[in-house]
Amino acid sequence: MITNGFTYFAVLAFLAAVLVGAEKLTKWKFFKFIPPVVLLYLLTMLLCTAGAWDMEATSAAYGALKNNILYAMLVLMLLRCDIRKILKLGPRMLGGFFAASISISIGFILTYAIMHGQLGSEAWKPLGALCGSWMGGSGNLVAVSEALHIGEADLAYALVIDSIDYSIWVMFLLWAISFAPQFNKWTKASTATLDEVCARLEAEEKEADKHITFAGLLFLIGGALLVSAIGQNIGAAINGVAPWLDKATWTVLVVTVVALVAAVTPIGKIAGAAELSNVLLYMVIALLASRASLLELTEAPVWIISGFMILGIHGIILVALAKIFKLDMFTCGVASLANIGGTASAPILAGSYSGALVPVGVLMALMGYVIGTGGGILTANIMKFFA
């Protein structure tokens, strides 16, 4: 049994490295259905359940690392979100994205209103975290879980849904591509604007400097850690004079604003933010899972069914809005996956239409990072009324 805090964290970091390395080296299709980040959560829970480390002896290391790394990860994640580039997507695609976001939120609210008796009175918290993920990405899920003070075991339910239901939704959307001509004809959609925006974004992408440097990486990680430290102090200070939001929520908001402002400055152009944010994301996920036990996952089937209900409601609303506003299949599909799948899968769906459309998928997914945390917290508080 591990009792040393540094050894405990080192084992978690190495496990994350092994899983990511296995995906890159083996290229198994298995990882398409269960991504390394989800597998990391599950395997770390197995180790926790087996008593691989002393929970009390390692609690100090967990407490010192989790929040500090989490807020630094948020900074790096949001540095990629240049609002000016996102606005270039045009009103129709932005409308499609927000239609998907709103329909996802409605799906969560209606599902919890129906299923709260089976899920439990506190289920609105992990569902809110999952909503943050399905509007943005795994980083948003972690941020919402911190803001809502969600227990690690409860968060595991959200990860189970995120793995199983999300995988099936991706397969469904990839299958639906073949019906794009019929769908576009039914909605009377035009793709002229899409083609124009895509050509412009692709030209900009080719001009961008993507070379990662040592100096750039050091500046990014140092700056992110500094913003994490100062943001927590400011969050605590604001909470003292504005207690209607707790310290964690204020900290998330402060860090988000700082990062979004920095993203439109030369800092946002420094290469490496995406890679570093993913490293920190895996660290945070491993730390969270290290305090959860699989013995507490007794109601997973009900949660999985609830996840499919959420996706069903989301899909029905999005199709209805597509008919009303004449949205094309690409806009609807990528908007849905940009929310639910994030940067990992939205570009794949976009590329399945055309390689030239990949930048559109990336930008729509990045926009999810901006609204995911706030959207998840808002949806959670609406669901709370049904508890």
Automatic annotation (TrEMBL):
InterPro entries: DUF819 (IPR008537)
Pfam families in the cross-refs: DUF819 (PF05684)
Coiled-coil ranges from the UniProt annotation: none
Keywords for this protein: Membrane, Transmembrane, Transmembrane helix
Keyword rRNA processing (UniProt): no
Annotated TM spans: 6-22, 34-53, 59-81, 93-115, 155-177, 214-236, 248-267, 279-295, 301-322, 329-350, 356-380
Protein name in the entry: DUF819 domain-containing protein
